[in-house]
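Suppose a colleague, Dr. K., hands you the sequence of a protein chain of 494 amino acids and asks what its three-dimensional shape might be. Before reaching for any lab equipment, you can write down a predicted structure in token form. Begin with the sequence itself:
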Amino acid sequence: MSRYIMAIDQGTTGTRIMLVDRTGKIASMAYSEFPQIYPQAGWVEHDPEVIWDTTVNMMNQALEKVSATGSDIVGIGITNQRETTVLWDRSTLKPVHNAIVWQCRRSAPICDELKSKGYSTLFQEKTGLIIDAYFSGTKIRWLLDSVPGLRSRAQGGEIAFGTIDTWLIAKLTGGKIHVTDYTNASRTLLLNIHDKCWDQELLDILDIPSALLPEVVNSAQIVGTTDPSILGTELPIAGIAGDQQAALFGQGCFGQGEAKNTYGTGCFLLLNVGDKKIEPRNGLILTLACNENGRPCYALEGSIFIAGAVVQWLRDGLGLIQSAAQSGELASSVENTNGVYMVPAFAGLGAPHWDMYARGAILGITRGTTRAHVVRAALEGIAYQVKDLISAFEESTGVPFAELKVDGGASLNDFLMQFQADIAGCPIDRSKYVESTGMGAAFLAGIATGFWKPGEEIKNLRISDRRFVPGLTAQEQQRLYNGWLDAVSRVKVQ
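The predicted structure, expressed as tokens, is then:
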């Protein structure tokens, strides 16, 4: 008898596979990192074939851990790093280039060109997004301009575009299915989020052939079945959502006014606004999310490019710590940063600043600065960026945050979560399962296959682990935050 939903959580630095049982418990999990490719400063790539191989290997490992086979799986849900862009040959399923990762800045000149031609308002009105190298559309344009002969092949229908969900579905189905869901499509700069279809005017401006594009579907529906050679049987692919929308769903935030923040490689704060088409202000964007039935609704989003990745950099780049867990211990060993601020703008600044050319900095260093002060400043830098977002959200909606649900690997850092509550001035509620992205994908697939009922049954599967309550005075909070704002002003270029 089938016992599990399988969730594929394909992230920026690794691939995680989860088997979730009917009670919402993670029965098995397998994870593997994969290489990051940096061809030039500010450029980031992944090998799509390595992502695929990693996904297959982890699927098998997750099954082996509980002595399960493909016949024990009810359905598969997929969540993914969102804006990362892959183009491949439809007939061979071979990528024509490495995937261009969402963090990559190579298409910044294309963005500058679009802005100089006065297209900023048009793109924001139609897509809810800011013109930025972050999103997929300009990455597609760069590939078409840079790979010899690619544009003509794309126009002839030989080439397919996809974000990572689309790539994995193509591989899982042997090239039979070319789809994405509304949440991923809304991150491309190509989807009109009001009439929920690809926008020909935007495609023409970017000179992108419509023949490249996948069909857009709901996040909870069966879109096809896997090739039986992969897991021994045909399995329904039943859930698809970009990682942050999946996390929003996994946290049970499918009601208007509910918010979550995910602390992964980057940091992403989403507020479900239901069917309201709120005009995004203060550097926020409007995107598509999922209602309780897995159909599209709207969410306000603030995106931070570097969050947990700064801890990885402290470990691998500077050698200041030996493990991520050590960062919290070291930060707690000193009372404060001794005036040090770290702005981790390694890939520019996202919301609310949107500066593609800003770069990271450590400010306020003196002879008395120690390793612990730098590590603490790095963790506080994550929390300050989230405070920037919370302020932007509250100004946009006129409603203060009563609570923020959190997830993601870096949310396990108690020091970071307590400082986040302190500097944000609102309680932080951490989920028991910090892998909310994978849980969201599982829940969506479970709804589509009848494994769970939508609404309250899903909401009740979410369990709180710990609640962090603010402990700073308003005066001290403002003093610290003013220092951060000064530090940010020093690294901004635009």
